[in-house]
UniProtKB/TrEMBL annotation:
Transmembrane segments: none annotated. It comes from Catenulispora subtropica. Pfam families: Acetyltransf_3 (PF13302). Residues 14-172 form the N-acetyltransferase domain. It comes from the Bacteria. This is GNAT family protein.
Length: 271
C-alpha cells in the first residue's frame, strides 16, 4: 500500500499524488471552474496545499490511494496535470477488528472493498476518453491486484451528468442516502450510491474496454481526414466551358477533430 503505484494508459497516466504535483493541480483546479458545481475542488493555493497534504496522510495511513491524473497529448507527447481521482474508503475485513478502523490493516496489506471518488477533471479533459481509461485502470487494479469484493461510487443526487457517467461504467444503483454530508456548493447533500461487485466485474470490464476502443477508433478515423477549409473560386475568373455557362469550382470541407492514441492494456503493479 505505501509503495508508489503508477497506472499507465495511452490517454493518461495516474501517479501517486505528490507535493511536486501542486502547481499542476492548482492550475487545473482554478483555470476554469465552470463544471465543478457539485464536486469539491480546491479553489486556491492554500486549499490545494491542504488537499495534497491530506491525500498524502491518507495514503500513509492505508485508507486511500490518491492519484494525480496526467493527460498525454497523442500528437506531441506533451504531458500536463488535469485533475485527480483516488481509491479511498479502503476496508480491511481481515484485520481482526470490526468495524474497520484506521491503523488496522489486513496481514497482506490488501483491502477487501473500496470506493472510487474525489474525481475531478479540468473541462478540457472531460469527454475525451480520459475518465473512461482512468476508471478502467483503477477498477482493474482494485479487482485484479487487490481482489476486492466491491467497488463503490457515489455522487450528489442532483448531479445528473455524474450519475449517468457512473451508470455507464456498469455500476448498479443502490439508492439514495439522505443528508449524507456537506454539499460542495453549500448546504447538506443527498448522495446517489452505486457499486460494482466482483461477480459483475468481467462484464463491466468488457463494457469499459469496448467504450474506450470506440472512442479511440473514432479519434483515429478523424486523424485520417484532412483538415480542409472551404475553397471558393470567383466564377468570373474561370474560363467558360460553353458559351451558355460558366464553371464554378468548390470543395467540401471535413470538420477537423482532435486526434487520439491507441490504448494499451493498463499495467497492473504486483500486489
Amino acid at each position: 500500500m505505501r509503495s508508489p503505484v503508477t497506472l499507465h494508459g495511452r490517454l493518461c497516466r495516474l501517479e501517486l499524488m505528490r507535493p511536486d504535483h501542486l502547481d499542476g493541480l492548482l492550475f487545473a483546479a482554478t483555470a476554469d471552474r465552470s463544471t465543478y458545481d457539485y464536486t469539491y475542488v480546491p479553489k486556491d493555493y492554500d486549499a490545494v496545499v491542504r488537499y495534497v497534504a491530506l491525500a498524502t496522510s491518507d495514503h500513509a495511513a492505508g485508507v486511500a490511494l490518491p492519484f494525480t491524473t496526467i493527460m498525454i497529448d497523442p500528437v506531441t507527447g506533451e504531458e500536463r496535470i488535469v485533475g485527480t481521482s483516488r481509491l479511498r474508503e479502503l476496508e480491511y475485513w481481515r484485520a481482526g477488528v470490526w468495524p474497520p478502523r484506521h491503523g488496522h490493516l489486513n496481514p497482506d496489506g490488501r483491502p477487501d472493498a473500496c470506493e472510487i471518488g474525489s474525481t475531478w477533471l479540468h473541462p478540457s479533459a472531460q469527454r475525451t476518453g480520459i475518465n473512461t481509461e482512468a476508471k478502467l485502470m483503477m477498477l482493474t487494479y482494485a479487482f485484479e491486484a487487490w481482489d476486492v469484493h466491491r467497488v463503490s461510487l457515489k455522487t450528489d443526487v442532483r448531479n445528473t451528468r455524474s450519475r449517468a457517467a457512473i451508470s455507464a461504467l456498469g455500476a448498479q444503483f443502490e439508492g439514495i442516502r439522505r443528508a449524507h454530508f456537506p454539499a460542495a456548493d453549500g448546504g447538506v447533500r443527498d448522495s446517489a450510491l452505486f457499486s460494482i461487485v466482483r461477480a459483475e466485474w468481467p462484464a463491466a470490464k468488457a463494457n469499459l474496454e469496448a467504450r474506450l476502443q470506440r472512442y479511440l477508433d473514432r479519434a483515429a478515423m478523424a486523424a485520417l481526414e484532412p483538415a480542409l477549409e472551404p475553397v471558393r473560386v470567383d466564377p468570373h475568373l474561370v474560363q467558360p466551358l460553353h458559351l451558355e455557362s460558366t464553371a464554378v469550382l468548390e470543395t467540401a470541407a471535413g470538420a477537423p477533430v482532435e486526434a487520439g492514441p491507441v490504448v494499451q492494456a493498463p499495467a497492473i503493479p504486483a500486489a
